[in-house]
Amino acid sequence: MSKTVLTNKLGMIGGGRMAEALISGVLSAKLYRPDQIWVADPDAGRLDHLNTRYGVQVGGTNHEVVGLSDVVVLAVKPQVMADAVRGVSDMVTKQLVISVAAGVKICRIMEACGADTRLIRAMPNMPAMVGEGITALAVGPKIEEDAIQCARQIFESVGRVVLIDERLMDAVTGLSGSGPAYVFLMIEAMTDGGVKMGLPRETASLLAAQTVVGAARMVLETGQHPAGLKDQVASPGGTTIAGLHRLEQGGVRAVVIDAIEAATKRSQELGG
Ligand SMILES: NC(=O)c1ccc[n+]([C@@H]2O[C@H](COP(=O)([O-])OP(=O)(O)OC[C@H]3O[C@@H](n4cnc5c(N)ncnc54)[C@H](OP(=O)(O)O)[C@@H]3O)[C@@H](O)[C@H]2O)c1
Question: How far apart are CA 119 and CA 210, in angstroms?
């Protein structure tokens, strides 16, 4: 898809880590200029930081920022979302509203903001902070194609984007939302394995992390099935098949599937 500079104004309600990742992404991608972005947050230190580092506009209330914006990103924690939305609902008219709050359903925000609200629910993940996120977008009933394209461009500035039905959002949370933690754990364990076998920790950590990056890029860039790629590494009677056998003995596949199921169910419970 061709990239165009967005002419609208972007408001962020909440200026925390996810908001900063998005600000950094859209500025780097030149989708917006700093003077097109407003951020509201109760923490003056955060606002100072965002203004100094990115040159974005700060100082307005949530209400003022929503009034100034064409696209509003709700980037507060799920537990304060209801209060934050209540405080700005009378200002929401034609804006495209994008919520990144985990577990907060489209119907909840539309109840608060009005049945005509143009709302998209997004589930990004932590690697958005380094431009390698994956975001699932679920669209509300009043969303048209150009709004989807706008949201897509914003989140593609910090990684990849998939469009999904909202009923699958808990599964997304269990997989890509929580997934970075599973991979961190895997990298830590691979590092420990290397250290056990005599490698210096720093070297082992680099070997492990870059191996994960490289393997993931192989899957994404070749389009091959991961099992086919795995078979190409595992030569007959070799080292890799010995390692794979041990992983299978440990039930690693079933444990990973169970982990995603458990996280999905927990997301369903928290979402109510
Ligand atoms: N970080 C991730 O990897 C990630 C991934 C997927 C989705 N998300 C979602 O992104 C949202 C933000 O997460 P985060 O990690 O960026 O959290 P965060 O770093 O805690 O940022 C939230 C910011 O919102 C501010 N805030 C609190 N109440 C507010 C209000 N009423 N109006 C305006 N701002 C308010 C907070 O200020 P105080 O600290 O002073 O309260 C804080 O600066 C969450 O809903 C989360 O589910 C995050």
Answer: 38
